[in-house]
UniProtKB/TrEMBL annotation:
Residues 100-115 have a biased composition (Basic and acidic residues). Belongs to the TatB family. The lineage of its organism: Bacteria, Pseudomonadati, Pseudomonadota, Alphaproteobacteria, Sphingomonadales. The keyword ATP-binding does not apply. The gene is tatB. Gene3D superfamilies: 1.20.5.3310. InterPro entries: TatA/B/E, TatB. Residues 82-138 are annotated as: Disordered. One of its GO terms (biological process) is protein transport by the Tat complex. Keywords: Cell membrane, Membrane, Protein transport, Translocation, Transmembrane, Transmembrane helix, Transport. The Tat system comprises two distinct complexes: a TatABC complex, containing multiple copies of TatA, TatB and TatC subunits, and a separate TatA complex, containing only TatA subunits. Substrates initially bind to the TatABC complex, which probably triggers association of the separate TatA complex to form the active translocon. This is Sec-independent protein translocase protein TatB. It comes from the Bacteria. It is found in: Cell membrane; Membrane.
Length: 138
């Protein structure tokens, strides 16, 4: 930033020794060092603030692009209807999953409640456990 060569630096030191004097030179150098430190601290704080603003702007841009892509995907692939909203082929509503337990006969419901009370290793195998399903496709 500041292009100061060796000859220019030597000239500044000579002028400083003549103007300030050799006695007060150490105190003047400390003061100059403190000022330079404060300026670096302020410029670092300013730079980090600018970087944060740039990151936020980039993040907002990425979020906007993501939203646009998400909307395009949602338009291309509509959401499937919920099972509770689907209707049976005869026009009546399909039974909801919440009321599926009401359709189970009382004898089977009692057997299920007895199975729940038994320890895991003492439970009877249910009809679903006996079903043999083919392995999933690779």
């Amino acid at each position: 930033m500041f292009d100061i060569g060796a000859s220019e630096l030597l000239l500044i030191v000579v002028v400083a020794v003549v103007v300030i004097g050799p006695k007060d030179m150490p105190m003047a150098m400390r003061t100059a060092g403190r000022w330079i430190g404060k300026m670096r601290k302020i410029s670092g704080h300013f730079r980090s603030g600018i970087d944060a603003m740039v990151r936020e702007a980039e993040l907002e841009e990425m979020e906007r692009k993501w939203r646009e892509q998400n909307e395009a995907i949602m338009k291309a692939n509509p959401v499937l209807p919920d099972l509770n909203q689907m209707q049976a082929p005869n026009g009546s509503e399909a039974p909801s999953l919440a009321h599926a337990a009401d359709d189970v006969p009382a004898v089977e419901r009692d057997a299920r409640s007895e199975d729940a009370a038994l320890p895991t290793d003492a439970k009877k195998p249910s009809a679903q456990a006996e079903m043999h399903l083919p392995p999933p496709p690779p």
